[in-house]
Amino acid sequence: MNDISTVFVTGGLGFIGSHLVDRLIDEEYDVIVLDDFSSGLESNVSQIRNPKLRVVRGSVLDTKVLADCMKNADAVVHLAAIVSVQRSLSEPHLTHDVNVTGTLNLLSEGVRQRVRKFIFASSAAVYGRSENLPLREEYPVNPLSPYGASKAAAEAYCTAFSKSMQMDTVILRFMNVYGPRRSSSQYAGVMIKFAEAVRKGDPLVIYGDGQQTRDFTYVTDIVDAMILSLKSKTDSGVPMNIGTGKPHTINQLARIFEEIGGLSVQRRFMNERPGEIRSSYGDITLARQSIGYQPKVELAEGVRRFMEWYRTKAN
Description:
By secondary structure, this protein is of the alpha/beta class. It is built from ten helices and 13 strands. Strand 1 (6-10), helix 1 (15-26) and strand 2 (30-35) form a beta-alpha-beta unit. Helix 6 (190-200) runs parallel beside helix 8. The protein starts with 5 loop residues before the first strand and ends with a helix.
């Protein structure tokens, strides 16, 4: 287990975090979760009553809570964040506080308590618009939104702490993550919006012409990357893309939803939203070589699994 036995997960009741927590417990780790319950739910974690799990309600901005949670932790996986581009446009200061100051709080406490490894969940949003695809880690960061800027700033702190304070940091740049437990809100992503529309028989709303591409990555593949990062020796402070390495257009995604639903659905095209990236998919060569990462779930299969969960949730 690479001398790591206790893992502290921020945002551990949320969409990605809860899948990670379930997997960590399956693999016999002790897990401490910090979540502010703004979108996380105890019901997301299938093993919520497991004695190897401790859940703390609190914020990454509360340094006293962080000190308590981290005192027995060997590793930190930092997932807590404001993750919506649209919300970051309306609440840029809050986005900075949670995503940047929160990360700095965790890194500082991690150094003080000599945490062995710090895994940071970053985003392809740091790249902004790039004419050169697939996206490679050596490309300059050029964020278009406060969300992307906050992730870029937090990455910079992870790299700086690696260089100046000998903190072993792993930066994982997630592509577009989807799967069960994705929360439904005004800031929900395209997967939830499409699922809701298919269930109600409403048109699929597409912003722009639908030819924009994304690297849709199923949540269990993302969890694999985090587990591999815990167990592997990596170059500290160096970002890695985590995705499928394959682009799909929004129109292709719409067709998959239609096929799975077994019906023809109208599409309603709306104006492109500000701050959104036209095309994005990542080169995952570094993750393959560094941690042995290998995505397993194809998009059609992932959407099928997602819709099975969504129908159960909606009923």
